[in-house]
Amino acid sequence: xxxxxxxxxxxxxxxxxxxxxxxxxxxxxxxxxxxxxxxxxxxxxxxxxxxxxxxxxxxxxxxxxxxxxxxxxxxxxxxxxxxxxxxxxxxxxxxxxxxxxxxxxxxxxxxxxxxxxxxxxxxxxxxxxxxxxxxxxxxxxxxxxxxxxxxxxxxxxxxxxxxxxxxxxxxxxxxxxxxxxxxxxxxxxxxxxxxxxxxxxxxxxxxxxxxxxxxxxxxxxxxxxxxxxxxxxxxxxxxxxxxxxxxxxxxxxxxxx
Length: 257
What we know:
By secondary structure, this protein is an alpha+beta fold. The chain folds into two domains: 27-132, no CATH class; 137-254, no CATH class. The chain has helices at residues 15-19, 39-43, 53-58, 108-132, 160-165, 241-253, and strands at 47-48, 72-75, 90-93, 99-102, 136-138, 144-146, 173-177, 182-186, 192-196.
C-alpha cells in the first residue's frame, strides 16, 4: 500500500481538481462534487452496507486495490426513492479519515442494470409471493422478514436505521430479494415501496467490522444467490450493459415492460 496515494476530502474538492493532480499509478480516489469537510460529519449521513467482490470488480478501474474483506462501503440515504431516478454517493473507508469517493458516472452500466432488475425482480417477486402461501415470520424486533422461499430467500444485511430511513416502522413487513438488489417495505395498509439497495452480500457474513452498529442478519450462516428460472416465466439477471439492452428488448417484445 506504500505506493498508493490517498487524499482526504479537504485536499480534493471536485473532479476538475482531481484531473489536475498527479495522483500516481495506484491512486484511485474520486471525489463527488459536494464538499464534506470531515469524516465525522460523513458518518452521520451515510449508511454502511456490506458489498461483494463483484461490486468492487465493477469499479476496478477506479478502485484498483479495494478489498471487500478489509474496507467498508458507505451509502448516502436516498431522500426521494424512485424506481426510475435514484442517486447515491459511495465512499470506501481506507482507515482513519482517508476514504475513496466513487462518482455515479463510474457506475453507469451497473445503474442501468439495476433499473432493469427492479422491473424483473418485482414481477418475479409478485409471482413467488402469490405461489408461496404463508411466508412471513416474526422476528424478536417486531419486524417480519420474508424467508423460506428458496432462491428468493433474503441474502442482504439490513440495519435498523436503513429500514427506518425507508419509512419502515415497527411491525411493518420487510422482504429482501436475494439478487434483485431490492428491499420491499409495506406499511399497515400494505402499500408497497421498493428501494434499490446494495448488491447482495454472498461473502463476509461474519464480518461485523463492516458495520458501525449491530446488523440484523438473515438466514444466519447459509446465504443463497437468486438463480432465476426462465422456464417458469422468470428471467436471469443481466451482468452487463449489453445484456441489459438485449433483455429489455426481449421483455418489450413480449409486453412484459
